[in-house]
Amino acid sequence: MKKIKKNIQRKTLIYKTEVEYGDYTMNHVLGCSHGCLYPCYAFLQKKRFGDIKTYEDWCEPALVENTLDLLDEELPKFMNKIQMLHLCFTTDPFMFQYKEVQDMSLAAIKKINAAGVKCSVLTKGILPIELAKCSKENEYGVTLISTNEAFRKRMEPGSAPWKKRLAALRALHDAGCKTWVSIEPFPTPNIVRQNLQALLEEVAFVDRIIFGRMNYNPKVTAYKEHKMFFNKCAAEVIEFCTNRGISYHIKDGTITD
Ligand code: SF4
């Protein structure tokens, strides 16, 4: 396990997101040790607005220590407006090997559920089995863009090995929880050659699949057939999900003319 080196305080926590499949969200950590190199959109934004100076700073997470107090203040105000509170858009709630982050996220989810609000969770870490004791309305997800472990180590260096990530998700599924997978940002074959069908088979037990293309990476646009490639992949996901009765969402901009 790794230790958090810095705690921070925030004045507010819950906010309405502009992200297409999101509702309300909270980000109770600044930075993310997973250090994804696609690159990470949250890192680019935080750097642009001066919250973070370097990639190394980004990979050294700072925990919002007053998270639970902020939830006590804000949940009564927001509880009737929120359909689903998402953890997280600009960090990872179950950051691999950071027990303090994981414990805070679990405590936050329990508090949110106690207020009658359901959560959706997305991670590249390990979802703890204790989540099975939380509201069965919650939705637990992992990001999985490849089943190539060498690629995972290269592009998501601090994240959990993909097999462990998926095993934790499956355990929650087996315990009766709603589960989903985000296959985003999906890379082009010049970044990694892979079989999308094989990846889909690995995640076929989930209730919902989100699929989206990789952006902000010059190698994607350098791949001449990238539009055709993403159209074909999206069609494959739709066909797979339709045949298996899995709900799906294709992110805006993935299918183009
Ligand atoms: S896990 Fe998410 S927030 Fe963390 S570095 Fe990767 S893309 Fe960014």
Task: Specify the number of helices.
Answer: 9
- Using the alpha-carbon principal axes, give the shape: globular
Query: Which strands sit side by side, in order, in the main sheet?
Result: 2-3-6-7-8-9-10-11
Number of strands: 11
How many individual domains?
A: 2
Order of helices and strands: EEEEHHEHEHEEHHEHEHHE
Distinct compounds present? iron/sulfur cluster
Instruction: Estimate the helix proportion, in percent.
Output: 25-40%
Main pleated sheet: 8 strands, mixed
Which band does the percent of strand residues land in?
15-25%
Distance between the termini: 47 Å
Overall average residue pLDDT: 97
Structural class assignment: alpha/beta
Unreliable spans:
none
Q: Rg to the nearest angstrom?
A: 18 Å
Instruction: Write down the oligomeric state.
Output: single chain
Explain what the structure shows:
The structure is a single chain. This protein is of the alpha/beta class and 257 residues long. It folds into two domains: 1-123, no CATH class; 126-249. It is 35% helix and 17% strand. Strands 2-3-6-7-8-9-10-11 form an eight-stranded mixed sheet. A three-stranded mixed sheet has the order 1-5-4, with no helix packed on it. α3 (67-78) packs parallel to α4. The longest helix has 19 residues, at 226-244. The model has no long low-confidence stretch (mean pLDDT 97). Iron/sulfur cluster is lined by residues 32, 34-36, 40, 42-43, 91-92, 124.
